[in-house]
Every structure is written in C-alpha cells, then in structure tokens.
Amino acid sequence: MGIIPPRLRPRGRLVIAPKHLGILALPAFVLLASEYVLGNFGNSALVLPDAVTVTPAPLLELTARYRFLSAWFFYFAVCVIFIAIFFSELWSQHSPKSAVRILLGLVAVVAFTMVFNTLEPAWMGSFEAYELLGKSLFVDALSSGWLRACETSLACDDEGAFHGMEFLLDKANHITSLAAAAVIAGMVLALARPQGPHLLSREGLAAEAEILRRAQDASTRYLYCSGILLSVGMVLVLSWMKWPGPMIADPELRGRHAELVNAISLYRGVSYSVLILSYYMPVSLILMVRIERFHDAVAAHGSPEVGAQVMGFDINRIASLEAFKKIVAIVSPILASALGAAVTFEGIGG
C-alpha cells in the first residue's frame, strides 16, 4: 500500500524565513551596476554631428509610433497579469507574517533604488535612456508628430510625439518597478515552507517531497515569468529606440545609427539576463541543498519502498528538455535583442 502524503497546512500558512529576504537586494545591485557602467563608460550624452539630419516623413513616423504603442500596450498588459498572479498566490498560499515580510522587503529595496536615483551621486552618471542615442535626433524626428493631447496641454512644449514617448515610457517605468518586484518576490517565496523538515518518518519524508516539488514548480514558474517579462520589455525598448531611425536622411548614417541601436539593445539584453540570474541562482542553490538533505534522509531511513515512493516525485532529476527551457528563459532577453537587431525598416530613400 502506497504512502499518502499528509495534507499540508491549510491556506495562508506558508512562511518565508527572514534570512532569505536578502536575495531581494541582489537584483537592485545588478541594476545599479548596469546603469553605472553605461553612465560612466558609455556615452550618455551623445551629440550627433550636424550631418545627421532628419527629413519630415509623417507616414514613417506614424508607422514607428504605432509599433511603439503596440509594444507598450502589450508590455503593460503582461505586467498587470504578472502582478495579479503574484498577489493572488501571496494571498492564497502564505501566512500574514510571510506576506508582511516580503512586502516590507520589497518596499525597502524599491525605496533604496528610488532614493539612490533621486540623489544622483556624481559617480553614478545619471542620464535619460534616449540620450545614449542622441536626444537631438529624437526631438527633431518626433516633435513634428501630432498628438491630440497637445492641443489642450501646455506640457508638450511643442514636442509632439516626443512628449508622448516620454510620458508613456515614464508610465512603463512605474509598472515595470511593480512587475519586476512581483516576479522577484515570487521567486524568493518559492523558499517559503509551512513547517520545518521532519525527515525521520515515512509521513515526514512524503510531506517534505511534496513541499520540495511545489517549491521547484514555483521557482520554475517565476523563472519563465521573468523571461517573458524581460523579453517583452526588450521588444518595447527596441520599438522606441528604432522610432526615429527611418527618418534619418543619409542612408549611410541611418545604417550606422541602426548598428548603435543594436549594440545598446544587446547590452540591455545581457544586463537583463544577469538580472534574472541574480535572484534565480540563489533560490535554485538553496533548493538544491534542501533536496540533497532530503535524499540523504531517505537513504538513512532504510526503507526502500519509502525511497521509491518519494523518488516518484522526480524532484532531483532535471530532464534535458527542462534544462533547455530554463536556459532559454534565462537568456531570452539576449535572444529578443538579437531578433530585434535582425528586423530592419526601410527609411527615406531606402
């Protein structure tokens, strides 16, 4: 007769240990390091030569604008969905103590990042993202674009579609902070458990196997969510970076600027992949230690039927297809940037 795992504690009983909340700080440091490198070793105040002139082309500008709006709307929807998934799981599976701990940890990390960006220390090299590609190009190419909102608002400052791009990217940054925090916290919460391990009995081993299986499922789920979120984010980044390019009058300069866009998008893709690794690897390693401890206990118990029953969960073996999917999820931002680099649009005279 097989062993039936006992029911885990009822709804809202998973608890995250405070020591694991330190993982939340790792992505913040990766992000700050990425921006530091760009601000101090890149050209964050690019001034394009006078030869880079823009020819007014309403249809080209509108075409690029609608690509941006499509990417922005889709990205916003993905962010809302992932935020909803996280809070749904937090409410249904974790104790109030665990929820308070993870939310306080997120508030601390977000507050640290916001304060750091607000203070803007001289060594950080703060900049607007489009300044890497030449602000004058964006202003010249997009200011002529008509926006209905600018008819009644003085905030546009005669910048037309450029003002619209800034406004929407600002909103995207806000929702990104929440969505990224949600998937990172969801990954860390995979380490939450309803109780300490009880590895001296059949029932305890079976319960531990179920806890570990659910933890691995949760970490894998949020790894895939991270890959999707940052890949769609790369599509949004490429859509606004490529917006003014087709309107550059000189074909040679247009091509060189497109290469610059591709190079910056590759850097963003690499930094996003490192960002995923910064919180996935610690969680994965902690789970690996727990699984090894579990298997040692199964071997020491000396009951082959219990070991066979527990191994039926297949929690320690990673199939080649599963490993491949995880690798793809981690490097998906790089793949998205490479795919975006392969997509080119004809410009004036092209």
UniProtKB/TrEMBL annotation:
Instruction: Work out whether the entry's keyword set contains Transmembrane.
Output: yes
Q: What is the protein name given in its UniProt record?
A: Uncharacterized protein
Q: What are the record keywords, sorted? A: Membrane, Transmembrane, Transmembrane helix
Where, by residue number, does the polypeptide cross the bilayer?
21-39, 68-87, 99-119, 174-192, 222-241, 270-289, 327-345
